[in-house]
Amino acid sequence: MADLQDDLHTSAEAGELDDLSVRLPAEVFPPEPYAPVSDHDEPLTRAHAVLAAHPVADGCCGLPRVLGPLPSYDLELGEYSFDTDVPRLREGHVGALFWSLHLPDGIDGDRAVGATLEQLDLLESVVRTHPEGLRLAHDAGQTTDARNCGRVAVVPGPARAAALGDSLGVLRCLHALGLRVLTLTGASWASEAGLTRFGEEVVREMNRLGVLADLSGASAETVRRTFAVSKAPVLCTRSAARALRPHPANLPDDLLVELGAAGGLCMVPLTAEQTGPTVRDVADHLDHVRTVAGPACVGLSGTYDTGAAHPLELGDASCYPRLIAELLRRGWAESDVALLTWGNVQRVLRDAAFTARAAQLRREPSRATIADLDG
């Protein structure tokens, strides 16, 4: 397992954004006065109350990346130097996590398929050995059930497109093993040029199965073609506003508008590189996405344990109340906060399941191959 993991202390983000991240000079992070939030602050008290009713559904957790090389660990005790463990998740009012199935750079084909299977096996093992804190979930009902039982729902994915090995049969096998999100980048059929005919067939089969498309880091051509082909909503699990910060994985306003119109979800990452070095910077991105795409289009992505640097006051998974307190100070209605933290993800999961049930009535599993369609 160890040879399939990146080092814990790497500075790049996990997943497809490894190849897209930019190294910004220190000058873009000018020092500015910053007053830490007081634990007795009234908006912070309100934030805890709102999150108790509407916990965070986090779009990207990198725990599989850091746990793989370790011989043992106990996430219930919170005794390791991770950003994420059960005590921190409870303190941060996190109700669900999408677990990134990290692949090392430069592997594809059978090695990528095998590495993804090992990541799914690791995820299942972690959840099984922490039954008091974690529970596997594959749809909106199971995430709600986990929350109601005092557990954090763990949703497998996103995985890289390379995990399919260019095979729809592998996609179905990965879905049967729990995969629920696939990132449409880094494959010959989902490239800078957009989706090929086989790529379009992958999206249709994902719709039939109930696997959500993640478009963070995808080219504008791939994003727009996926909007046209997919009958289910899409996710951008790690994308903020490019108008505020010119990171290649952030979305320009025109794509944010189209994402909102398509019922998709932009999950803003809590990373200094993509959103900025303070809580206020993250809140600025959330304000912008809500304004441009609508309150039903914005979510959160902690990206904890991916190797990314995080803004001040948002150093680990326990810190979500401080971000929500900042939004409440800005006048966010509690109903909009509830959509941001929990409601929008639940809606996307429900819509994906509804689309899958309808598609399965109309369509048999696709037997198309990349040679058939793109050869």
UniProtKB/TrEMBL annotation:
<protein>
    <submittedName>
        <fullName>Dipeptidase</fullName>
        <ecNumber>3.4.13.19</ecNumber>
    </submittedName>
</protein>
<dbReference type="Pfam" id="PF01244">
    <property type="entry name" value="Peptidase_M19"/>
</dbReference>
<keyword id="KW-0378">Hydrolase</keyword>
<dbReference type="GO" id="GO:0016805">
    <property type="term" value="F:dipeptidase activity"/>
</dbReference>
<dbReference type="InterPro" id="IPR008257">
    <property type="entry name" value="Pept_M19"/>
</dbReference>
<keyword id="KW-0224">Dipeptidase</keyword>
<keyword id="KW-0645">Protease</keyword>
<dbReference type="InterPro" id="IPR032466">
    <property type="entry name" value="Metal_Hydrolase"/>
</dbReference>
